[in-house]
Specification:
The complex is a heterodimer of chains A (about 240) and B (about 250).
Chain A lengths: L1 H16 L4 H20 L17 H27 L4 H33 L7 H22 L4 H14 L1 H10 L23 H38 L1
Chain B lengths: L5 H19 L1 H29 L8 H9 L7 H20 L1 H9 L2 H7 L2 H31 L6 H28 L4 H26 L6 H30 L2
């Protein structure tokens, strides 16, 4: 416990003495601004989409956020695994929790943007499409993780251990949601399976916006992750001072 | 004196749990009463649906209506939906009764004794076997009654048996690890359902997928093995991860 406290102190001090990562944070702002501009002024309307293809512009925000909402769960689970096996300190637990909180936020954004798209394109906010079902189950898994953390009480070690175990157990449905469920023959999806992967399915202007969008949102996640971690450090220092 | 083996510890805990259960009958009563109450509700809902659908047809003298009436003698749900509903019933019943398996140890103060005398793996195995046996017993009683009430067909009996066994294996694993987490969190039963049910949604979807192979008109061997294998792999994976991580919950 003393080691982790020293680590937290040193990191907080290091963060307070300068503006670390200024260049890539500036780059994140520029890329996100470019994506917002590009979504409306560079990319054309998507073929076979409602509203002269204009509804397709939400894809530049929905798809990266949806992909991140799944990837971030793995980030949180990897930190949970590290906590249980290699580094049982509060720093690793804080990283796992920060990833899960941000994943929950990305999951909500993916659900909302997906529903808006579904209402315009498919005529209903919710269609029980396998991808829609997957994202709402991911949302439930994130919510259950955060609920368990909140319900564990004041003992930080117990909270860290129980939530790390839950993160790893819930990884099994997470894996099935991402790799197994969309491929089940009984479940037909409204989502196209290979639009992003295949190079000939999207136009050049779409690629010019979509790929930077993935990069921008990933950098935004890293930025938010660091900010959330700093909040944890400040809370830990404050609770020690009180 | 040498320490008893891993399996001997697990069976000793299983025997202890069964003795305690036979004395108090808490879990068995909770699961049984919950399952039968839920079954009654489902039967009532189906009867209402049946009446509502058949009422307009009774006025028709046309012989075609008799055929329609016979088809509506059971609700117009497909067998896969009925299988899904059966497993929803079993999931909720399991969660009603199996949540106490670790909470009871915490409340009676026997956790420390178990921690000192047994390995964490033995404790998990003992508790898991207890939950599995209880769930299989409940499924053996509830499933035939449910099938009679709803007119659910079994499809291929062997595949149906495999689906039910694989379902029990996965459901018991989820119930055991979630019970341990909820007990260590010193929380109420509400937390048990809240953290357990999200893990079971995917499990139910895999069951429905297995049901699609079970009730297909001409199910191919490969499709059946793939569907049941998917369900079994989910159960085995959950069981394996739960068993591997249980020591972190158990040992403080």
């Amino acid at each position: 416990m003393a080691t982790s406290s020293r680590q937290i102190d040193s990191q907080t001090t290091r963060a307070a003495t300068g503006v670390p990562g200024l260049w890539w944070k500036s780059a994140t702002v520029i890329i996100i601004a470019y994506v917002i501009y590009g979504a409306f002024f560079i990319a054309g309307g998507a073929v076979n989409f409602a509203g002269n293809g204009n509804i397709g512009r939400i894809i530049f925000f929905h798809v990266p956020v949806a992909v991140l909402s799944s990837v971030v769960y793995f980030v949180g689970a990897v930190y949970a695994f590290h906590y249980l096996t290699r580094h049982p300190d509060m720093e690793t637990d804080a990283k796992s929790a920060a990833a899960m909180e941000l994943g929950f936020m990305f999951c909500i954004l993916a659900t909302v943007t997906g529903s808006v798209f579904a209402a315009a394109q498919w005529g209903s906010y919710w269609n029980w499409d396998p991808r829609e079902t997957s994202i709402v189950i991911m949302l439930l898994l994130y919510a259950a993780y955060l609920l368990l953390r909140g319900a564990t009480g004041e003992d930080p070690v117990r909270r860290a251990r129980l939530s790390a175990v839950y993160a790893l157990v819930a990884l099994v449905p997470g894996l099935f949601l991402i790799w197994v469920m969309p491929r089940l023959p009984a479940l037909q999806s409204l989502h196209p399976p290979d639009t992003i992967i295949r190079m000939d399915r999207t136009s050049g202007t779409y690629k010019m916006v979509l790929y930077p969008s993935f990069l921008g949102f990933t950098m935004l996640f890293i930025w938010l992750f660091q900010m959330r971690l700093r909040c944890y450090h400040l809370c830990a220092r404050r609770s020690r001072e009180l | 004196m040498s320490r008893p083996g891993w399996a001997a510890d697990a069976f000793a805990l299983l025997e202890k749990d069964f003795r305690a259960e036979l004395r108090t009958r808490v879990a068995m009563s909770a699961v049984g009463v919950f399952a039968f109450a839920a079954l009654l509700l489902i039967a009532l809902a189906m009867a209402t649906l049946k009446d509502a659908r058949s009422a307009p047809l009774l006025k028709l003298p046309d012989p075609v209506s008799l055929d329609l009436l016979s088809r509506l003698s059971h609700p117009a749900w497909d067998p896969i939906s009925k299988l899904g509903l059966l497993w929803v019933l079993l999931c909720f019943s399991a969660f009603a009764g199996l949540s106490h398996s670790f909470l009871h140890e915490e409340e009676s103060g026997t956790t420390t004794a178990l921690r000192l005398t047994m390995r964490s793996g033995s404790v998990f195995a003992g508790k898991y076997l207890f939950n599995l046996i209880l769930l299989v017993l409940v499924a053996l009683i509830i499933t035939p009654v449910y099938m009679v009430l709803t007119g659910m067909e079994s499809g291929s009996p062997l595949v149906f048996l495999c689906v039910m066994v694989c379902g029990c294996v996965g459901l018991s694993a989820v119930a055991t690890i979630v019970a341990a987490l909820a007990a260590k969190a010193h929380s109420s039963g509400a937390l048990y359902g809240a953290i357990g049910l999200p893990l079971l949604v995917v499990f139910l979807l895999m069951l429905l997928n297995a049901g699609s192979a079970l009730y297909a008109p001409e199910p191919g061997l490969i499709a059946t093995v793939r569907a049941v294998g998917g369900l079994l792999s989910y159960g085995i994976l959950i069981l394996a991860v739960s068993a591997l991580t249980f020591q972190f919950v158990w040992e403080e």
